[in-house]
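[INFO] parsing input record for Short-chain dehydrogenase
[DEBUG] input buffer:
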Amino acid sequence: MSGQGQVVIITGAGSGIGRATALRFAERGWTVVAADVDEGAAAHTVAELKTPGKAVSVDISDSARVAALISTVVQSFGRIDVLVNNAGFGFRGTVETIEEADWDRVMAVNAKGVFLCSKYAIPELAKTGGRIVNVASYTAAQGIADRAAYVASKGAIASLTRAMAVDHIGQGIRVNAVAPGTVNSPYFAKMLAESPDPESLRASLDGRAPVGRMAEPEEIADAIVWLASEESGFVVGSVLTVDGGTSIWGR
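[DEBUG] output buffer:
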């Protein structure tokens, strides 16, 4: 998939899946806008690219800053062809134990962030016949213990993906999502580093999937790039599960 002259915005591009996705697009010649709340991390990603790129600091829960992001990209590159809504986070807690402010923050970033980025990008994507790829999670369909806010936010993303796909296909915009399983990301690296028994925790994380390991960020990035390509031209409103079989594990 040649991306010569095409522009992709990737949120949460400073690390993990976002960083890997930025590198994958760059390998195919795309101009990459790496958006992240951590401008330094975004700049580090851009420094690794083999194609033109731009690092932008943005809090995707802030409407004004998202609008400014889209405006900056159009002013800098003249177009937007793909939006990858990847940024998100989570933490432990049930509906009984999560503080209301923490619930609101997860929803503001994970769900509202997808809404805002899409809202402001769609008028530009309509000009290019663009694509949106959202990053949901296998937990949106299966659930996981002690992650109520995260699971709810990812379920919202999966449902919003289907709604957006119906609403905007008439504008020539295809909307899909990828639902990763457990990914070998900085989030889990930090969890392992802080664990009193990292070997046991690593075995537990690897054991979530029948393949016996966590996904590498590049494996999720490959799915995102495919959904953004013309090779998936008949795929609309799908949530592509890439979880090593976790969701069919039956245990």
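[INFO] The beta strands are 7-11, 31-36, 53-57, 82-85, 131-135, 174-180, 239-242.
[INFO] shutting down worker
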